[in-house]
What we know:
This protein has helices spanning 29-42, 60-75, 87-96, 108-116; strands at residues 4-10, 16-24, 47-51, 54-58, 79-83, 104-105. It has 121 residues and is of the alpha/beta class. It has a single domain (4-116), classed as STAS domain (Transcription Regulator spoIIAA, 2-Layer Sandwich). Strand 1 (4-10) and strand 2 form a beta hairpin. The longest helix has 16 residues, at 60-75.
Amino acid sequence: MARIEISSEVLADGIHVVKPAGKLDVFSFGELKQFFDTLSSATKEIRIVVDLSAVEYVASSGWSVLLSRRRILKLSGGDLTICGLSEEAKRVYDSMKIHTILPVANTPVEAARLMVGQGLV
């Protein structure tokens, strides 16, 4: 069985919601990176919400993919936010003090609104 399964949908405003399920670790982070590469190949100004509600565990390699992808997207006019953190992932997120460089919300709609607040929608 795969360590991670990734699905996606597009909201009415064109924001892509990417939903990984499983473990986001050293064995699976490459799959998420490849998924982002495929999505971003169509347009550089893509806006992505990553819904982590079905992710059991996020290792440092997973956080690295999320942070670097946001940086890449911001440079090209897009953006990335996250939502649906488990209690464990939220503790790690808080301890890393990355709230200013990787915005988080509770739901995909709230995460999309974070990009609205930045004038992206």
